[in-house]
Amino acid sequence: MKRLSVLLAALFAAAGLHAGEVQVAVAANFTAPMQQIVTEFEKDTGHVVKLSFGATGKFYAQIANGAPFEVFLAADDTTPAKLEREGLAVAGSRFTYAVGTLVLWSSKPNFIDAKAEVLKSGQFNKLSIANPKTAPYGAAAVETLKKLNLLEAVQAKFVQGENISQTLQFVSTGNADLGFVALSQVFQDGRITSGSAWIVPADMHEPIFQDALILKRGENKPAASALHAYLKSDKVRAIIRRFGYGSR
Amino acid sequence: MLTETDLQAIWLTVRLAALTTFILFFIGTPIAWWLARTRSWWKGPCGAVVALPLVLPPSVLGFYLLLAMGPNGPVGQLTQSLGLGTLPFTFWGLVVASVFYSLPFMVQPLQNAFEAIGERPLEVAATLRASPFDTFFSVVLPLAKPGFFTAGILSFAHTVGEFGVVLMIGGNIPGVTRVASVQIYDHVEAMEYADAHRLSAVMLAFSFAVLLSMYLRRNQPRKEA
Which structural domains are found in chain A, ordered by start? Predict the structure, then answer.
């Protein structure tokens, strides 16, 4: 009996030391940097992070219907603003953690030239984009094509990913020759990791501000506020930049 | 009411389900017949393969199909060499996927119906010098008619209810691969809940009506007897 109580006390003490756990919803385009950030965060603070990756619109629906997320890193700034307005997030916790960069990418080397003439030539089977209705990178892709006066010409070749990860997957499996994806997905340490790409100049579309905030469920949770603060640190900003994001 | 894109999605879904069911009648019938009649050791493994889509997550099926039908996959290489291009993101790609996906819903009711006929009617037909073909068309088919009805309804309804596989290989193209279930998903993601409700209600009413028609019909002969 005594042994058991000692064991229980030890378990509770361990849990107490372990501070806390935080459940985080993360926009799919931020998957790779977030994994790195969380590894550092857990090492530095001892908190444990549970990550879910997906489409921002889907997370909105889940959060509005009681999903247990405590911190949300969205792919846009309108969804977090909406959550804040509707009282589903902690007021004043919203900030831009990254500015997204759009890239036209192909898994084939030398398929895309420096000026993206391939889009004009029409020499490709499919163009993969994220659903422009729900995904900011999809909307930015459509805006870019409009600006190039190519939207009508290439629209028939659109295939739509459910989120930015699937958009990339259509291209990386070779099923689509081209795709507009997030630079962070195909970029590391200052260069494109494979295939060929055209980094879309920032003036081709409205900037993709990606906002993060603490949700109602994360209010007064030490692990949630610790992560929130950590995202603003210089260490994290450096990681985010390495993946090709801009900052505001 | 329903928007034009909703109607387009519904029409596409109906076309996909009808075509899939039609093809499945031709593929499923011989498989079911063989499974019902054979004493071969292969009956077990073949039955298991046919039933796989019942238990496999659609993501597994979608993943394999995407790779197999892609430009570097075996099916993709074949379709390309035939000058057909590749199947993902096309209506025919969905048809092929749906045939796999709904196969057990065609084969199993048919197999049950064939097994229920038993040896006797076939032996009688044989003594009357009916050829196997003749026996199949004039004895087996009429006797197994309720089985065909059930198999057809289930295959159709199951294809209408398909979502995961379509999401993985469809590419969400309006009028080509954006079926009703994906359209609903789209509405929900875009926070268009009113549209999602309308189309969901249509799907619910349709599914209930289909199943009701099957159960009513299934109960009928018993009443007559």
Answer: 2-99+208-242 (3.40.190.10), 102-199 (3.40.190.10)
Chain B residue nearest residue A168, CA to CA: B171
* Nearby residues of A75 by Cβ (< 8 Å), 6 or more positions away: A27, A28, A29, A30, A55, A56, A100, A135, A136, A137, A164, A208, A210
- The CATH number given to B4-224 is 1.10.3720.10
pLDDT digits (tens, 9 = 90+) for B100-147: 999 999 999 999 999 999 889 988 988 998 888 889 898 999 999 999
Cα(A54)–Cα(A80) distance, integer angstroms:
15
Q: Using the beta-carbon criterion (under 8 Å), do B189 and A57 form an inter-chain contact?
A: yes
CB contacts < 8 A, A to B, total 58
Distance from CA of B138 to the nearest CA of A (A): 47
Query: Is B171 in contact with A133 (Cβ distance < 8 A)?
Result: no
Tokens of B128: 């009357």
Report ipTM (2 d.p.).
0.72
Looking at CA atoms only, how far is residue A178 from chain B in angstroms?
Answer: 13
Q: Does this model's pTM top 0.90?
A: no
